[in-house]
Specification:
The chain is α/β, with parallel strands linked by helices. The protein folds into 3 domains: 212 residues, HUPs (Rossmann fold); 108 residues, Methionyl-trna Synthetase, domain 2 (Beta Complex); 131 residues, Isoleucyl-tRNA Synthetase, Domain 1, CATH 1.10.730.10. The chain is built from 18 helices and 18 strands. The strands form 5 sheets. The protein has a 6-stranded parallel beta sheet, with helices on both faces. The protein has a 4-stranded antiparallel beta sheet with strand order 5-4-6-8, with no helix packed on it. Strands 9-11-10 form a 3-stranded antiparallel beta sheet. Strand 14 and strand 15 form a beta hairpin. Helix 6 runs antiparallel to helix 7 and helix 14 packs across helix 16. The longest helix has 28 residues. It is elongated and about 85 Å long. 42% of the residues are buried. The protein binds 5'-O-[(L-methionyl)-sulphamoyl]adenosine. The site of 5'-O-[(L-methionyl)-sulphamoyl]adenosine has 22 residues, from strand 1, helix 1, helix 8 and strand 12.
């Protein structure tokens, strides 16, 4: 796999020359280390990676961040259940998430662990900035350890968590509270005016409904330290309390840009750039309500986009550790290579509707699309180019010009709207068209320059469209074509079949 030299642990420096470009800060959720990575986590991460690569190919700057959420009571419980020391346990699982970078060629600039010192500094800084809105009170209520959240009576179904369907626990304790209620009107306005743009619309509507119902109370932002056995970030000047894991986790987005440490990138990317949070719909409330409230309280800009993907289902159920129906990373990588998993998730997933994974379909899409259409197209074209009767082509004629133009428009428009599968359906249409073009015009017999020009022009475009999804193979195609100043020189290369 291609090595990504851009990544150097948690610190990353850009090369020079990016001062005037549009800057984008793109994030995934930070994943709980209560269990190993699975297809659901990977889905959100790949969506964000493809968007990041797309932005960079457009010539914009993009800083891409992921990480692991390692504090919280649930983590302590799971570690104990596995008879592991908590620190060893989180190190082990966090590493598995980190290794996704290598395994799936993720173009990450930063990977945040919430147990790191730099993160703690960022959390303290945010806490202190929010301090005027934090007060002490007593909390009594139902708690879901998987969500790390309290539920109100009316949200509970048969005493179970509405998301995880696990038994809730009754807690009563002294906590610090955050004056969430103070910011609700302002957040509602920001969302209504799309200053915080929530995608898709139905999630935006749900969030606005929650805000309009006016049932939200002030938020408990600390937990009893003894109950979490001291694991977590202590409240400044009060060792008896641990900072609520969601306050802690959400701050990771600031940590990655040096907030509370070295703030140069924070200024450039957070304050002056566009902020995109890719998340799953299950954590929309935390990102669309709590997070903007903390930021408003601290006097920090709120995110520009919150993109909430729907779920991959396994026989109608959400895939999760709690439900025990995982599709693991090893399963995915077994037969077809990492690029196909990227391709499958991006092209088969319906971003804003739940969709079902199946192994039959996985295999079918590999054979039918990646191997027989895309891979085949590439090897056919290189075969034809090797034997073509010209040494060079000036790329000024495209018999499929209108088709290409249509795809270009749809592609850009859909990706900018985060509808990756639609963007790539349109690109795949061009792949099939070009395969048909070869057959219909019998190019292996023809001596017409314009046919060859059409092949090269469209293949180069197709490779560029697919580059964010299939970064390694499409880079091979582009390097082999090696088009300079609109001229293709025939070096009579033998190109290996990409997908066997
Ligand atoms: N730690 C919190 C997030 C904190 S962000 C400041 C958390 N972690 S999680 O590990 O439970 O998973 C988070 C995300 O994984 C979900 O929001 C979603 O993006 C992704 N997915 C997990 N299972 C999924 C599916 N089955 N399908 C699609 N995405 C899912 O919540």
């Amino acid at each position: 796999m291609a090595q990504d030299t851009a990544f150097s642990g948690q610190k990353h420096r850009f090369d020079s020359g990016w001062g005037r470009k549009m800057r984008n800060f793109i994030t995934t959720p930070i994943y709980y280390v209560n269990d190993r990575p699975h297809i659901g986590h990977l889905y959100t991460t790949i969506l964000a990676d493809v968007f990041t690569r797309y932005k960079r190919l457009k010539g914009e700057e993009a800083f891409f961040q992921s990480g692991t959420d390692e504090n919280g009571l649930n983590i302590v419980r799971v570690a104990e259940k596995n008879n592991k020391n908590v620190k060893d346990f989180v190190d082990e699982i966090s590493r598995e998430f980190y290794l996704l970078k290598e395994k799936f060629n993720l173009s990450l600039d930063s990977f945040i662990r919430t147990t790191s010192e730099e993160h703690k500094k960022a959390v303290y800084k945010l806490w202190n900035l929010c301090k005027k809105d934090i007060y002490m009170d007593v909390y009594e209520g139902w708690y879901c350890l998987s969500c790390e959240a309290y539920y109100q009576d009316e949200e509970i179904i048969d005493g179970l968590c509405p998301i995880h369907k696990r038994k809730l626990e009754k807690f009563s304790e002294k906590n610090y509270f955050f004056r969430l209620t103070k910011y609700l009107d302002e957040i509602k306005k920001l969302i209504e005016e799309d200053k915080i743009k929530i995608i898709p619309k139905d999630i935006k509507i749900q969030i606005l409904d929650i805000l309009r119902e006016k049932r939200i109370k002030d938020l408990s932002v600390s937990r009893d330290a003894a109950r979490s056995k001291g694991w977590g970030i202590k409240v400044p000047d009060d060792d008896s309390q641990i900072i609520y894991v969601w306050f802690d986790a959400l701050t990771n987005y600031l940590t990655g840009l040096g907030f509370g440490n070295d703030e140069e990138k924070f200024k450039e990317f957070w304050e002056e750039g566009k902020i995109y949070h890719f998340i799953g719909k299950d954590i929309a409330k935390f990102h669309c309500i709590y997070w903007p409230a903390f930021l408003l309280s601290a006097g920090i800009k709120t995110p520009d986009y919150i993109i909430c993907n729907h779920f991959i289902l396994n026989e109608g159920e959400k895939i999760s550790k709690t439900l025990g129906n995982m599709i693991t990373i090893e399963d995915l990588l077994k037969d077809y290579g990492y690029e196909f998993t990227r391709y499958y998730l991006i092209t088969q997933g319906t971003e804003f509707k739940d969709w079902s994974f199946s192994w039959d379909n996985y295999k079918k899409v590999y054979e039918g699309e990646l191997k027989n259409e895309i891979g085949n197209l590439v090897s056919r074209i290189f075969g034809l180019l090797k034997n073509m009767p010209f040494d060079r082509l000036i790329l000024n004629e495209n018999l499929l010009e209108n088709d290409l133009k249509d795809v270009e428009e749809v592609y850009e428009d859909r990706i900018e709207n985060f509808e990756f599968s639609k963007a790539y359906r349109s690109v795949f249409g061009l792949v099939k068209k070009l395969n048909r073009f070869i057959d219909e015009r019998k190019i292996w017999e023809s001596k017409e320059e314009k046919d060859y020009k059409t092949l090269v022009i469209n293949l180069e475009k197709i490779a560029k469209f697919y580059l964010p999804v299939l970064p390694e193979s499409m880079q091979k195609v582009l390097s082999a074509l090696d088009i300079k100043d609109n001229i293709f020189e025939n070096k009579r290369i033998i190109f290996e079949h990409l997908f066997k």
